Amino acid sequence: MKQSSIDLVQLFKFSFNQYKQYASFVIGITITYYVLAIIPQVYFMIYSPENPTLKTQVLSAVLTVLQLFLSLGFIKIMLLLIDDEFVTVSDMFNNFPQFLSYFIAYFLYLISVLVGLALFVLPGIFIAIRFQFYPYFILEGTSSSISALQQSYYKTEGLTLELLLFGITVIILNILGALFFGIGIIFTYPLTTMATAVIYKSLIAGTAAIPSGSYREQIG
């Protein structure tokens, strides 16, 4: 298997260029995502009663499903934009065929990470890193939940430490974005999602360098 290596500077440079190219659309779709998916969740968490009723539990479940559904659409849009493919707002909402697989894979992933963290911490981090690309395999193919998780694991072989460094970078950028009056997240979240999509595309292409040559050629 060809050993890959992640060039973080080139990766974020390309992602930044794509963000600039589609800035108005990316900002609009990010605001839409946060208004529909994130703000309701935050509001509910702040103002929900201490002793939840059946009604509040049902509402919480509905908001969680909505957030997951829209997050899949957001990932899809960023995945399309890095390849300069035509996108519309409807791409955030037309992923019903893939959603069940994504929903199941998400909870398998979440439970595995939490169990790993609860046991020895490091296994949880390892699982989070190696299985993180499952949404992309589901979006781009007919992968089942289990198959998508398996493919993510196999494709990231030998890249655990580099993906850890990438993950730390993503976390730092998004924290900085959130600290900047919360407005900066409109820039950092789509930027880091694009960067993750570029890694996925380079992994399935099997290239030694990430980002792959086709993306590097577009970097000015």
Topology:
Layout: E1 5-6, H1 8-21, H2 23-47, H3 54-81, H4 96-119, H5 122-130, H6 134-140, H7 145-155, H8 160-179, H9 185-205, E2 209-210, H10 213-216
Parallel strand pairs: 1-2
Helix pairs in contact: 1-9, 2-3, 2-9, 3-4, 3-9, 4-5, 4-6, 4-7, 5-8, 6-7, 8-9
InterPro entries: DUF975
Transmembrane segments: 22-46, 58-82, 102-129, 163-187
Protein name: Membrane domain of glycerophosphoryl diester phosphodiesterase
Write structural notes for this entry.
This protein has 220 residues and is mainly α. The chain has one domain (5-216). Helices cover 74% and strands 2% of the residues. The protein has ten helices and two strands; from the N terminus they run βαααααααααβα. The protein has helices at 8-21, 23-47, 54-81, 96-119, 122-130, 134-140, 145-155, 160-179, 185-205, 213-216; strands at residues 5-6, 209-210. The protein has a two-stranded parallel sheet. The longest helix has 28 residues, at 54-81. The model has no long low-confidence stretch (mean pLDDT 91).
Q: What's a quick, concise take on this entry?
A:
By secondary structure, the protein is mostly helical.
What would the keywords be for this entry?
two-stranded parallel sheet; 2% strand; 220 residues; membrane; single chain; 74% helix; Membrane domain of glycerophosphoryl diester phosphodiesterase; mainly alpha; 2 strands
| Number of helical elements | 10
- Our estimate of the beta-strand percent is under 5%
Structural class: mainly alpha
**Low-pLDDT sequence parts:** none
Overall residue-averaged pLDDT value: 91
Helices and strands, in N-to-C order? Answer: EHHHHHHHHHEH
What is the terminal-to-terminal distance? 31 Å
